[in-house]
Amino acid sequence: MTTPSLSDIQITPELGGMLAIPEGAGPWPAVVMVHEVFGIDENMRAQITRLSQAGYVVLMPDLYSRGGMRKCLTATFKALSAGKGQAFEDIETAKALLTSRPDVTDKVGVIGFCMGGGFALLLANKGYDAATSNYGMLPKDLDEALSGACPILGNYGGKDGQLKDAKVKLDATLTKLEVPHDIKMYPDSGHAFMNPQQGGGPVFGTLLKITGAKPNPKDAKDAWLRIEAFFKEHLGS
């Protein structure tokens, strides 16, 4: 695969982020990527690089821009739970900047990991052409949150205790709402299985590993192949 251009970007004076641009001549479809709970770390840098290599301009807003992870984590999760708040405003601002670029097409998708996967589900009916949730928490009111949603792809781990029923619930709701979807559960994986390396640092990383939240390269490879095929179908490449 080619190596995309990866750079830090100032979306607004208060909001930072990371931008990945494919190698070669565009225009390319656009994708907003929402980071996991640990923010824009090495795992998220690897994920944005991987998606951009497939032929997408990808922008990941830093939802912790206004004070770092410790200060912003609670507020970000409150926004996720409420379905509104600063985090959603920041993602919308990032989307507006991304879609205004001359090197992108008129197609835009959203993808998220962990916490970001929850945001991706809530954004699926907010003007995107395709949405991918990777082990993202489900909205409280699935019917309301997913009514009128764009096509949705989901990847979940069968050993993820907090999200063990996610596939069944998403399948049932999206089928009822007649939303095109493809939700897969990987029996041998836990939470965060798509990360290239153990997330959480030396302390939290050890605890997460004990709970089964650890990389599974085999399942991650399959999940990425599904994501690439899904976005190619709905966004082009």
Summed up:
This protein is 40% helix and 22% strand. The chain has 8 helices and 8 strands. It has an 8-stranded mixed β-sheet with strand order 1-2-4-3-5-6-7-8, with helices on both faces.
Question: What does it look like?
Answer:
The chain has 237 residues and is an alpha/beta fold. It has a single domain (5-235), classed as 3-Layer(aba) Sandwich (Rossmann fold). It is 40% helix and 22% strand. It has eight helices and eight strands, in the order βββαβααβαβαβαβαα. It is globular, with a radius of gyration of 16 Å.
Which ranges are low-confidence, i.e. pLDDT below 50, for 5 or more consecutive residues?
none
User: What is the H/E string?
Assistant: EEEHEHHEHEHEHEHH
**CA-based gyration radius:** 16 Å
- Treating each run of at least 4 consecutive H or I residues as one helix, how many helices? 8
Helix content: 40-55%
CATH architecture name:
3-Layer(aba) Sandwich
> What is the CATH first-level class name?
Alpha Beta
Give the CATH H-level superfamily.
Answer: Alpha/Beta hydrolase fold, catalytic domain
Sheet having the most strands? 8 strands, mixed
Overall structural class, as computed from helix and strand content, comes to: alpha/beta
Distance between the termini: 14 Å
The mean pLDDT is 94
Per the principal axes of the C-alpha atoms, what is the gross shape? globular
CATH topology, anyone?
Rossmann fold
- Strand arrangement, largest sheet? 1-2-4-3-5-6-7-8
Number of domains: 1
Kindly state the number of beta strands: 8
Residue share in β-strands: 15-25%
